[in-house]
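To whoever picks this up:

The nightly regression suite flagged GNAT family N-acetyltransferase as changed. Nothing in the input moved, so I suspect the structure step. Input below, exactly as stored in the fixture:
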Amino acid sequence: MNLILKEVTSENWEECIELEPREDQKQFIASNLYSLAQSKFLPNFETLAVYNDEIMVGFVMFGIDPDDSQYWIYRLMIDSSHQGKGYGIETMKQVIDRIKAKPVPTDIMVAYHPENKAAASLYEKLGFKVLGKAPWGEIMTRLSNVD
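Regenerated output under the current build:
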């Protein structure tokens, strides 16, 4: 595996919006098209395409949430045809490393749908601790960024 995170640009955004999760996962995540549009109104967010060598396999979006000044990973999506290969956990490790390298350390937050067992398992493996249910209904988790 040679996983690389690259900026979503005018050259690759159309390929990015073609990526989709499995049918049973679509209820848990916004489309990449929606996420890219949303990012235009979140100036402190990064949108990155996930590549295995030269093949785009996923998408991730993260940044400082304007409401609480914490880093949030808003989206992680691995295309249905590339799931089960370890790309999700490796992508998250790279994103966590990028956030930890920022000049001002903050905790890292993630929220997920209560029925999304795959997300719950992934974030638990990475050390995220459940904080409880958010007002909008998702499960909120935090990874302490104090090393």
